[in-house]
Each structure stands twice: as C-alpha cells, then as structure tokens.
Write a structure and sequence with these properties.
The chain is built from 14 helices and 19 strands. By secondary structure, the protein is of the alpha+beta class. A 6-stranded mixed sheet has the order 1-2-6-3-7-18, sandwiched between helices. A hairpin with a 6-residue loop joins strand 1 and strand 2.
Length: 451
C-alpha cells in the first residue's frame, strides 16, 4: 500500500465504527430468536456490498451466513469465523448504564450488547477485507467466511454444516477473533480454547414433600445428597477429583507450562474487575495454568426447598443443580460425562440423575506451528506492540470444528478489552481496539499474500 495502513484506517474510522453500531442496534438474541432475521439480512447486504458471494444456509436453528471472495486459484486461503448472535440482555437487571441495544460511544468505549462478543470482533476483520477491496480491487488471497447464529446456545448446527461442506471449506489457516485480550490492551495469539460440558443434576427423594419433624433422619434428603455429591467432586482448592475426568487425568505439555510461566497477572486490575483476590494468590504461573491448561468445575445454579420469609420445616422431594465444566487437552465431553455418572453411582448416589445439556470439545494448535510468526508479525503491526503467544483461551468457542473436523491450524486473535464484560451488564469494546483489529486484518492479507 502506498499510504500507510494506519492512516487509511484512521481516515475512515467514523464509517468503520458506524458499521459496528448499526449491527449492535439489531438484537439478534439466539436464545429467543429476537432480531435474528434482521441481522442475517444486515450481514448479507453488507457482505454483498463488500464484494462477497453470499449464501444463507438454513439449519435446525438459526441460519449460517457463508461468504467467499478472492480468486479461486489463489495460493493461500483464509477461513474466517464469527457469530452474529448475542447473549440475552435483561434491561431490568441492576447495573446497565445504557440501553443494551442502543450503542453509545463514550470516549474510547463503545457500550452495548455484542460490541465485544462477537460483533466488534468479526466486523473488524470483515471491514479490513472490504477496505482492501475498495483500495485495490481483487484480493490477493481467497477468503471464506462462516458467520453462525447459535454460538451462545452451543453452536449445535455448526458441526453439521462443516461436515457437509468439508471439501468446500478447505483452507490454509483458520484465523478469527473472539474472547478478551490481556490486561492493559495486550494483544495475544490464542492457540486453542478450552471445551465445555454443561451439566444438569436432578436429585430425587420421596414421592412427596415431607415434614422434617415426622420424617427427619429416616427419609431420603435429595438436597443434602446433591450437596454432598457436588462437594465430593471438587476439593476446597477447586481441583476436580473425579477419576477419569479430573486434574490428575490431564497431562500438561512442558512447552505449554513454559508459555504460561512467562505471563504475568494484573493483580490490581483483577481486584478492580472482580472485587476479590484470585484464588491462586500471588502465583502468576498457577493462575494461567488453571485458566488455560486445567479443567474447571463451576456450579452455575442450585434450586432446592423454600427460601422465602420465615421457615418451612419440609424435606423437599427434589433438588436440582446446573454446572459447567471447562475441558482441556484430549478430554472428550461424553467420556467426562460417563466418568461423572460412574463416580456418582460408585458413591451410592443412586437417586441423582446427571445429564449433559451442552458439549463442546477443547481444541489446540501447536505453539510452534509455522504460520505463528506470520500472524504474530501482522498483529504486532496492527496494534503497534508485540502479542504474547499463549496455549489457549480460558473460555470456549467451537474451534474444534476447524482443528478436528477440517484438520486446519487455528489461531484466535482477540480484539475485545480484558474488561469487555460480555454476557453481563455494560458489555463494551474500545474504538481503539476495533480499529487495531481492522489494521491487523489488512496486515494479515498482506502477509498471507506473501505465502
């Protein structure tokens, strides 16, 4: 490019940000279906205007938008992924400072649901591709784009779409943006993601509720049973104790350990964001090891008994809980489920049914993959500072469909701030990071074209 990329992006910053604001104004909540059709129409129109050949594929849930651009005989093909659906936003929930689907730009911040997760991230990369075409005409590479509408509810249709289009989705690299950056806007290359197993526990006791004076001590107590099972599964330090699924069953690679030992924790930022100290104390290496390389068990909901005013002396006939287990390494969700079910049976919890409600395997690309230096250099140019290369995102994306089903290397370049607050009130991104993402996308095209 004759004009520096930074100058080009800076001169178009208002229009680039305007595209994101237009997208955020469309709710596109996958859980309810609100705004999905409008968002699909928005993306289709924008992509066609940017020179993509666009297809909308119906699924068992929400449509997948698929698009291609660039020469079919290009020597390098970039597969780009994103999701246009967002997490529900309850405006009555305490804490929203703005209306979630009426985006507000305040200084460097853009407030609104989807700004960080994931509209701001995929639109930055797509805008870079559009800008390249505006400036130069035809792309020097082939670009294939998958935008799904079910990520926030488990990406159930996505693997079926990928399986049905294996040959068509052939590429040299999957590189996309998701998740938060590191503190102080430190860019990163994430070489994988943790998987997830969503669980539901239903504990059954007597056929009806019982008086605790007449039956206490002799009748089954499903609430206590469920509490005991959950407590046995995880020790006080947070380590999963289930044979076949726990910490002891996960082998951690030496290169991964070395990578996390090089990372620091922003303790002040953590305290400000979370309002508590990390459970790993001052051990920065352990903090990142647990966040990327170890399974983590979380009880996300528990329902049992009476919690209103006063007291009801009742042994309730049923208790239930929901949990999510983050998976790492070679852990397979259904094998972990079987291990947990076996653990419960062997300890005599025969009245507790355990079932899966969400499954996504973990995914990894080697830290020393030959395309890492290429992407690292492009990100460094886009952000003006070198990124860190880390084993995995602590959260989950459907990355496995690229690495396991398509056999591709996959590198995630997050563009949202560390405190993006996705899935919570006051989700946000930064204008500066969004524009850095656009610059990074342009540098990626340059780098891929040299391959």
């Amino acid at each position: 490019m004759d004009t520096p990329i930074a100058d080009i992006v800076g001169s178009r910053s208002d229009a680039l940000v305007g595209t994101l604001l237009d997208s955020v104004r469309i709710a596109s909540v996958s859980l309810t279906g609100e705004g999905i059709a409008e968002q699909v129409a928005f993306l289709g129109k924008r992509l066609e205007g940017w020179g993509f050949a666009v297809e909308v594929h119906a699924t068992s849930s929400h449509p997948i938008v698929y698009a291609e651009a660039g020469p079919k005989d290009a020597k390098f093909t970039w597969l780009l992924y994103g999701h246009y659906d967002v997490y529900p936003a309850d405006e009555k929930q305490e804490g929203w400072k703005t209306r979630p689907f009426e985006p507000v730009v305040e200084g460097d911040r853009i407030w609104g649901r989807g700004t960080g997760d994931n509209k701001g991230q995929h639109l930055a990369m797509l805008s870079a591709i559009a800008l390249w075409r505006e400036l130069h005409g035809e792309l020097p590479i082939r670009v294939k784009v998958i935008l799904e509408g079910d990520e926030e509810t488990g990406s159930v249709p996505l693997p079926k779409f990928v399986e049905a289009n294996r040959a068509r989705l052939a590429a040299d690299l999957c590189c996309y943006s998701d998740g938060p950056m590191y503190p102080n806007d430190q860019p990163a290359l994430l070489m994988g993601v943790r998987g997830i197993l969503g669980l539901e526990f239903v504990s059954q006791g007597a056929k009806r509720n019982l008086h605790s004076g007449n039956f206490g001590g002799v009748a089954p107590n499903p609430t206590l049973d469920l509490i005991h099972l959950l407590a046995e599964m995880v020790d006080r330090d947070g380590r999963l104790q289930v044979p076949g699924a726990g910490d002891a069953d996960v082998a951690v690679d030496a290169a991964d350990l070395a990578a996390v030992r090089a990372l620091q924790v922003d303790h002040a930022g953590f305290r400000e964001s979370v309002g508590a100290e990390p459970t790993t104390g001052a051990d920065d290496a352990l903090f990142h090891e647990r966040l990327m390389l170890r399974p983590a068990f979380n009880v996300s909901g528990f329902a049992a008994g009476y919690t209103g005013a006063g007291q009801k002396s009742i042994i309730y006939k049923e208790a239930s809980a929901k949990a999510d287990l983050r998976l790492v390494g070679t852990q397979e969700p259904l094998e972990v489920l079987e291990a947990i079910q076996r653990f419960a049976r062997e300890r005599g919890y025969h009245g507790i049914e355990i079932r899966a409600i969400k499954t996504t395997p973990p995914s990894r690309t080697p830290l020393d993959h030959p395309l890492v230096p290429l992407v690292k250099d492009a990100v460094a140019k886009g952000f003006g500072r070198a990124p860190v290369v880390v084993p995995a995102l602590g959260g989950t994306t459907p990355d496995y469909v690229f690495t396991r089903l398509l056999g591709l290397p996959s590198i995630v370049v997050p563009l949202a701030p560390y405190d993006e607050n996705n899935h919570a009130p006051n989700e946000s991104t930064k204008v500066s990071l969004y524009l850095a993402g656009v610059r990074t996308g342009l540098h990626l095209i340059e780098a891929f074209a040299r391959q």
